[in-house]
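Rotation project, supervised by the postdoc (A.L.). Task for the rotation student: set up a whole-complex structure prediction and record inputs and outputs verbatim in this book. Inputs entered:
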Amino acid sequence: MKISTKGRYALRMLIDLAEHQNGGYIALKDIAKRQNISKKYLEQIIPILNGADLLRTTRGAQGGYMLAKTPENYTVGEILRLTEGRISPVDLSGEITPGIEETGELALMSVWQGLSRVVNEYLNSITLQDIVDEQQQHYMNNYVI
Amino acid sequence: MKISTKGRYALRMLIDLAEHQNGGYIALKDIAKRQNISKKYLEQIIPILNGADLLRTTRGAQGGYMLAKTPENYTVGEILRLTEGRISPVDLSGEITPGIEETGELALMSVWQGLSRVVNEYLNSITLQDIVDEQQQHYMNNYVI
DNA sequence: ATATTTCATATATATAAACTAGGAATTAGA
DNA sequence: TCTAATTCCTAGTTTATATATATGAAATAT
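Outputs recorded:
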């Protein structure tokens, strides 16, 4: 029951973009360096975000990425659903076979559905802006005081 | 973000034991057959439950397993924590390194902690008895009416 | 004694996660 | 128009984890 690096890296990239917004495009090179994440690996995660129009990009020299929307318009839920696939605790496709009623699987299904519901509700309630704010908080506590 | 077969099989074994309680020991052979799960694989899951005193067992002929407590005294949460390891969405041990403040990881940590909280609260709220009741419900809907 | 059962440990297979690599396509700026 | 910088595309590699199988020892009711 884990969130993979794919989802976590996607979030960190978006957080990084939110924190370094300057009106222009930000090169992946810089994000990868700041976040200490393999640039090549990030390149594989980006199409997922791009396909859902979470980013604006330009190629070529001086190219890079910026957020397509303001940070309060991204939820952690949507980002993780994109990168992790459905955030469902079990994949039940193919498991609904004759005899399932007797095995307890059917009764368990409602447990998994309920779990999926609370997970998604929680993750949908948090925006990128919330995380940036929290981040700022940490920064102040550690360095300014 | 998945619950593995290990956790689901453990739950199904315990549900099976709850439904077939008869005061005596129930052979794994029968459970495996009813649940259509590899007996050998179940044998590997059992020590986890046994170590936490969730089962009573005897070896030898006519041996087998029974629940150590009544079904309402097992929560789905405790069973999954045993079989899945901590039901934490990310493993952060070793990730707390210098520079973590700037990467957004620290701010994300509170997201994961919150997620962990809602997941555990939900799973702790469901007992084995709840599932058996739900199971009974299904059975009645499908066969008796 | 014997058949039955759990217990312990080792091995195998398949799948997915987590990267790495090479180069094509695009673009700003000289 | 050339060059350097950058994203985009696709394939391959490595490592870890999930999901089992296999073999046989230890225990026990009959």
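Student's summary: The helical segments of chain A are 5-19, 28-35, 39-51, 76-84, 100-103, 105-124, 128-144.
Supervisor addendum: The mean pLDDT of chain A is 90.
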